[in-house]
Amino acid sequence: MALDPEIVGAALKRLRAPAKAASGNAHAPYSGFHVGAAVADARGAVYAACNVESASYGLTQCAERNALGSAIAAGVRPGTLEAMVIYLPGEEPIPPCGACRQVMRELMAPGAIAVTCCDGAAIQAWTLEELLPDAFLGR
After folding, report:
1. How far is it, in rounded angstroms, from Cα 7 to Cα 3?
2. For residue range 96-117, what is the model confidence (pLDDT) as tens digits?
3. CA 119, CA 136: separation in Å to the nearest integer?
């Protein structure tokens, strides 16, 4: 399914700058990937976060999950988050990892979108259902 370019453009306009700003705070001594993510709820509130790496790689916290956790900690109800923009410096947007895709499907609204962007003009955009079809939702 092709996403409406206006919806993608609106998400980028609102969330790209906070995602990019958050990437500047990333702790990424191992991967060198300074990722920022920003998520918006139905009221328009924005929550941004960065990745925080650990020498024990499995304990690394991705920007996407940190942004979602920030929203939930602020009192946002799961299922009301409508859009996420993920920013990574460079010329190639990179999609979220599998763990982030699963958590995004659980905490974001049905039909929510995810957009990855970088310093170049290239972007990638999906509905969450496209990003992770047949997700385990525990319901």
Report:
1. 7
2. 999 999 999 999 999 999 999 9
3. 33
Helix, strand and coil in the chain, % to nearest 5: 35, 25, 40
Length of the chain: 139
Provide DSSP, 24-77. Answer: TT-B-TTT----EEEEEETT--EEEEE-B--SSGGG-B-HHHHHHHHHHHTTPP
Query: Tell me, what amino acid is at 133?
Result: P
Task: Check pLDDT > 60 for residue 1.
Answer: no
| pTM exceeds 0.85 | yes
Q: Which two tokens stand for residue 133?
A: 């079809």
Distances (CA, A) of 77 to 42, 65, 72, 114: 10, 15, 6, 18
**According to the model, what pLDDT value does residue 2 have?**
72
**Catalytic option among 64, 82, 91, 106:** 64
Q: What does the pLDDT average to over 35-58? A: 95
Give the whole-angstrom CA distance, residue 13 versus residue 83: 12
- Clarify whether 64 is annotated catalytic: yes
Contact indicator for 53, 15 with CB cutoff of 8 Å: no
